[in-house]
Amino acid sequence: MKRYFLKLIAIASLVAVMPYAQAQLKVDISGVGANQIPISIASFADEPLTGHSISGIIRADLQRSGLFKIIEASDILSETAPVNLASWKAKGADALVTGSIVKHSDDRIELRYKLADTVRTVDLAVHTVSTQSQFARLAAHKIADDIFEKLTGIRGAFATRIAFVSRSAGEYRLEVADSDGESAFVALRSTEPIISPTWSPDGTKLAYVSFELKKPVVYIQDLANRRRIVAANFKGSNSAPAWSPDGKKLAIALSREGLTQIYLINADGSDVKKLTRSNGIDTEPCFSPDGQSIYFTSDRSGGPQIYKMNLDGADLKRLTYGGTYNISPSVSPDGKMLAYISRREGKLQLHVLDLITSQEQRLTDTSHDESPSFAPNSRYILFATEASGQGSLTVVSIDGTAKYSLSAKASNIREPSWGPFSK
Predict the structure, then answer these.
(1) Average pLDDT, integer, range 373-398
(2) pLDDT for residue 2
């Protein structure tokens, strides 16, 4: 049984030695929501000044969410242009987005846009986003976020970032990209495996595990200046870092005293406190949104299952009972859902558990899912999977209806983590 559960500890390492290549991600949409809002996004006046198709980015964001049906619009319409909303309603659009670009001599640009309700013939939003030209794509994502929230009541997460690990030619790379996989940059290169990246709550740092010292060591890296510190390099394995909601501490899995157990440390590596003292393997911790509880994986019941305990280790509760192998817990930022990987009938598949009703749902039909990570709005889950030997990242809505993949041609990418809302 112990050897059986040790596979859990080895999953990330096994993944890390699979072939990877430079990640140039493309999006493939494979599922949409049951109820979609029909919307048209006209081309913005003078948008070539940005070097990007601002309207195209907004369209792609909304379409990818699965909640919108894009009604084609060949028109170029500024937010001040006279528009017959009834005619757009007749075309099938319940909402219309128009806009324009103004570029200033100091390389600053203004993205002006208007969101109109064609059914009630009223304006829902009229805004201007000012930024430097280099951040035009980010500004487009922010516009898509605003539209998403105005029409669904849910905060959009298009202007967030994701992290993942790729490998080619013997080099491992920790990469950061926009939520749509664009604008990727390499945060760290190494000839040794990199696993388990996780975002700090303010989105400025990544904690991760690197094997560059020929053993798993936890590092924290500042993304702006690339500086990093060693957060945990104790005897044995140092793995599975998870940030506390206030960004001051990490929950980690250490084998410094023998069996892997859960510990709490300050983000600078000081003040180590042991939280679990089981006769099994305890690993993969993650904090509840309020910072008062920790979810983790343990084989104390004979096989890997998900548990929850208070921050002091008290009030231990087992949460998963479906199947004999449940790993990799991830809690939604709103605290309502638990995502995890469950092995049933030989397949590793993404499941979610409603923490209020205890209802469980399988979200995928693939067989090699791993590393779930919630979007900051709690509505989508990013995870890694594999089909025909090809690794990719997939995003699925929490009801399983909307789905799209981020894949790299002839390569594999793994270890995804979805970043927080930008401040």
Answers:
(1) 91
(2) 37
Percent of the chain with pLDDT over 90: 85
Residues 6+ apart with CB under 8 A from 163: 174, 175, 176, 177, 187, 197, 199, 206, 415, 416, 417, 419
Can you read off the two tokens belonging to residue 36? 């979609």
Q: Is the pLDDT score of 386 beyond 50?
A: yes
Distance between CA atoms of residues 77 and 82, nearest Å: 9
- Cα 341 to Cα 41: distance, rounded to the nearest angstrom: 38
- Among the CATH numbers 3.40.50.300, 1.10.3720.10, 3.10.105.10, 2.120.10.30, which is that of 2-17+160-418? 2.120.10.30
Strand-pair category, 37-41 with 68-70:
parallel
Q: Which of 85, 147, 91 is nearest to 121 (CA)?
A: 85
One-letter amino acid for residue 172 of the chain:
Y
Instruction: For residue 282, give both structure tokens.
Output: 């305890």
How long, in residues, is the chain? 423
Task: Please state, in angstroms and rounded to a whole number, the distance separating the CA atoms of residues 149 and 21.
Answer: 36
6 has a pLDDT exceeding 80: no
Structure-block tokens of residue 358: 């205890």
Give pLDDT tens digits for 235-257: 999 999 999 999 999 999 999 99
